[in-house]
Structures are given as C-alpha cells and as structure tokens.
Amino acid sequence: MGERWGRRRGGRGWSAEGARRGRVGAPSARLVLTRGRAQPIMRAGGYLLSMKAKVEELRSRGLAEVTAAADRAALDAVRVKYLGKKGLLTDLLKGLAKLPPEERPVVGKLANGVKTVLADAVAARRDELAGAAAAAEAIDVTIPGIAPALGHPHPLIETQVRLEQVFESLGFEVVEGPEVEDEYHNFEALNTPPDHPARDEHDSFYLGPMLLLRTHTSPVQIRVMEGRQPPIKVVATGRCFRRDEADATHLPVFHQIEGLLVDEGINFRHLRGILDVIAETFGGEGAVARVRPDFFPFTEPSAEFAISCFVCGGRGCRVCTEGFIELGGCGMVDPAVFESVGYDPERYTGFAFGFGIERIAMLRYGITDIRQLYDNDMRFLAQF
Ligand code: PHE
Q1: CA-based, 20 to 30 A from 280: which of 209, 266, 286, 362?
Q2: Separation of alpha carbons 232 and 72, rounded Å
C-alpha cells in the first residue's frame, strides 16, 4: 500500500474534477498553502497526495478489508478502524475544518459518500457472515439419517417368549415362581422325599437348611395348585440351577418351561395332543412327538418325550439320536402330588411336562454349544 501511496506523487493522482474545482489539500499542518488558494497537495512522508486521492484510497482499502474480514470480530475491527469515533474517515472529516471553505463541501461529500459505501459494505458483509454461520449450523433434512443400532431379544429369551405364545394360543396361562425355593416345594410336595434316589440327579445349590435354588420349574406346579382349584391350565418358564459341570450341553444355570393341566377326565391322549403341537411348532410340518416310558416321582405314568429330527427328517444324523431329539419329561400327575395340595385324586386327573428352553433355542438357531448362549459375545448374538 505504502508503495502505491508513494508513487502517487506530483499530483498525478488528481482527477479532472479536482483540477477544475481547485486543488484539495490535506488537513494537516504540513499542508502547504499559497495565498488564497489551497495548494492541491500535501507533503506526507515526502510524498504529495491529494485529499481526494486519500479518500479514494480509504475507500478501496476499506472495501478490501471489509471483504477480507473472516468473522464478526474482524469485521468489527475494520468498522472501528474506518468508521469509528477515532477511525480513519472520521479523522479525515475532522480535518475538513482546516480546508478552505469552498473546498470543504467537495471533500466532505466525497468522504461522506465513502463513509456510506463502507458502512453498507460492513452491513452486507455482516449479513454474509451471519448467513454462512447459519448455513454451517443448519440441519440438512435431505441427508440420509444414521440408523441407530437397534438391539433385539436374546435368542434364548426370544425362544422363551415364542414358547409362551404357543401355549397361550392353546389357552394356557403363563405363570411364575420363585428361583429360591424351599425343599418342600422343590422336592417333598413333588413326591420326592429326602432319601429318594431321584434327588441325586438334582444336585442343588443350597442357600441354607431347606432353602435352595430351584432345580426345575416343577415347584411352580405346587404353588399354583396350593393357591387355586381346578381347572388349571398353566405354563411356567424360568431359570433353574443344578451343580453341573459346564460343557457343550450342560450349564449350572438353564431355563425350563413347565406345563400343568388339571381337570376332570384328563388323560394321556390330551398330553399327547399338546406334545404333537410342540413338535409341529418347533420341528416343522410333519414333525411328530415320540413318548417313551421314563420315571419321575411326581408323574405316573411318566415318559420322556422327543420330536422327530427336523434336520434329517427322522433318518438319523449328528443333531439327533436315531431320528429323534429328546426335549424333556412328562406324565400324568401322581395322585400323591394331588394329595399334597389337597386335591381329590379320585375326582381330578392331569398331566405335566417340562423341558429345557436352551435345547429348543439351540435347535432353532443351529447353536451347537450351550455356553454360547451365555457368553454375551455381541458378534455371536448379532447373528440371530
Ligand atoms: N421336572 C422334570 C425335570 O426337570 C421334568 C418334568 C416336568 C417331568 C413335569 C415330568 C413332568 O427333569
């Protein structure tokens, strides 16, 4: 800039108008005046500059700086520098007083014009910056959203809910019982006295004398029958506990679903019908249930039940045993159980069944190791 100022020497910067109307002098002490007529020049740093050129220069410099202002603060600084109370233009206007009277209006008008131009430019630039800031903050509603990661039920819970739905559709009510049980409900009332060999299979976690983590969902049968009279048609799902070593098919914590139906005239064929529905629901169309004699203290007769293998269709494969997949136990409620809850065994009969939910989940999802259901490895679980 200084260079440009410097080069404008010798009045070369004057306009034709300036020449016509008389020369314009700078309002400084260094203004050289000849008698009666202002010299159109000033000495500044050794260079002669016309007042008009100076105004012009302020205009172009000011405009350039306004345009270059990158933010509100910078713009404000430029405004103060040129238009503020001690700004360059204000300074210049103050100096008007030192000009010969006839020259004041010319320079005054010029300077005021520049003042307006700069003020307008500042206002425009302010709007521009505000617009840019607003645009930066604005939400573009056309940008595709980022889908939030959605979870889904655990395959085990999903299976439990599916089982409950199937039984609800068959008219069963879903009930719950405590995970911490007393020996009476877990064993005695289920016709399993302390010295009964069946207790060996139910190696349990004791929390104190007579208090344990339930080893199966069958105690819920007792709690339901204690509380109401037949007809009873319930399923109970929930966690069970046994002191088992963890391997591919066993865990000390697992889930069961228990079914109980008690009324007058209930027989084994009713049970069989329900088992066939389960076989078809989880084994696919054409799947059948198979019952074979077994023993449980609380059912008589007792049976183990299996469904035909949906992998090989019954021919025999890695997943099944000779074409069938064993699911659990079942049978007609033992009269001794009815007696322990005060039901008349001569009047009422009923059936019960119970099986592991993990087993069904593993079959449903092709999971080969039960422990994977409890690892909580998101990479594994996200597949289902
Ligand atoms: N409670 C038995 C078990 O856990 C299963 C069962 C339930 C058997 C109901 C018969 C009737 O092994």
Answers
A1: 266
A2: 78
pLDDT bin (cut points 50, 70, 90) of residue 27 is very low
Q: Do 181 and 78 belong to one domain?
A: no
**C-alpha of residue 355 to centroid of ligand 1, in Å:** 7
Give, for ligand 1, the residue of 186, 275, 296 to mutate: max count of ligand atoms closer than 8 Å to Cβ: 296
What are the residue ranges of helices labelled H in 202-356? Answer: 219-227, 268-283, 335-341
Range of the domain at 111: 2-137
Question: Which tokens sit at 323?
Answer: 């074409």
34 and 69 belong to one structural domain? yes
User: What share of the chain in percent tops pLDDT 90?
Assistant: 48
Residue range 201-205: mean pLDDT, rounded: 81
- Domain stop point among 111, 137, 163: 137
**Which amino acid appears at position 10 of this protein?**
G
The full length of the chain comes to 384
Q: What is the CATH number of the domain that holds 270?
A: 3.30.930.10
In a domain, 210, yes or no: yes
240 and 288, same structural domain?
Answer: yes
**Whole-angstrom distance, CA of residue 214 vs CA of residue 204:** 8
Highest mean pLDDT among 69-78, 284-293, 326-335: 326-335
Amino acid at 49: L
User: Cα(140)–Cα(10) distance, rounded to whole angstroms?
Assistant: 58
Ligand 1 atom with minimal separation from the 328 CA:
5
